[in-house]
């Protein structure tokens, strides 16, 4: 994508487009459900805290690890960062001056500190997954890094760093997507002008890649591809849901065949990069051995041609203000469309431990790409997917003061906060433009962390399993403390996977509510909830999860468990 020299016209443009989007909102069918302004902003609008004004790099990619450390990394082809490597370490690439700065860090949530890491090849616009042992497997990138596999294994001291594996990927993976599978493998799908998928671990450099015609069919052409970073969701039956552009399929990756094609999402909007929307698999509710219903939600995006308009003509069209929900397990799935309080592109969707969805970051106009977005969205939106009245599901929350545009990220932490960082819509680091490169980290605290509800917040005392391991179908107990128990409110136990997040997509993000068998009071403030583990690895792929106890919609802090 061509670099452009931003100027002060972005300020006037952003103000003009903001007024435009209020007067002329994105078009919607009369069959859509509309947001009601009476539900905007309330006493529950949340709080922002600036954690670090600069971590030295811009947080383009983030992954929470099982020890509550967060691996963060940027790209390597835009010059030095603002953080030096330790011990005079440098990377020397052919024809380039030595680079002695870090392009990756590990962030310690508890101490609010960062440690620089050494990554050797370019990780720009790459993908990743945690594998069952808790190691981050990061795949692809740009230039010399586009076929590289890197790993980061968590440690509790300063000894761990990136490891680059000797066996490369079968094809270049730039703007690809990953999903952990029931057998512990990772599927890696797509990339720019790559219409195949492959698996990790790699047995050899000649390991197979498999052609996927759907990826070719959903590409709109150079620039406006609109099918990069396809949305992947593993469904309870073991098949893979794949969404790209405006189409989606149920895919059997073992037999390389399309099981079914779903209806096209309504509206004149594209939903994948560069018309970047976001997607989550809504919470799975487990009961016995039955496979749960699975429902996908996709929000935001931009109309066809939006990228070329912004990139070449400097016309920033309004983004989509719609979300679509579809029950994938219905006999005849259909999209149900809803209208957000404002249009959004490049926003992140984060599953909160109580089952609500946080929509955060992004812009109201333009697309992803270098200086191709305008009119940042400062207000997150809470989506209460369980409310029967669609007009009451969206709640506008407290704004950040920092524009989080292209290359921004957001992830859930084990304490219930949402870690937010990044935003670099420029070819290089640029701290003087209207939307400057941002190196900060913030935390957004949802309403359930307010002091006024602290008495209703459970505090986990123990998980009664061997070695914090939850077996499939295992009945186990969690003891917790609760100062103010409301017997009319449900006690639930949720498992949440830590997602690998980049480009508005939380790969492997998954939340399930376990079947609760009984709740027993042990003493005045102590309780025990007995729950059943997930039924199969197709419902809950093996690996580390955050376990929360939720009371009256208020989650505890999580403890880490391993599902096997």
From TrEMBL:
CDD domains named among the record's database cross-references: E_set_GO_C
Signal sequence segment: 1-21
Domain Glyoxal oxidase N-terminal per the UniProt entry, residue ranges: 60-448
Keywords: Signal
UniProt xrefs under Pfam families: Glyoxal_oxid_N, GO-like_E_set
Residues of the Galactose oxidase-like Early set domain: 457-563
Keyword set includes Signal: yes
Full protein name: Aldehyde oxidase glox1
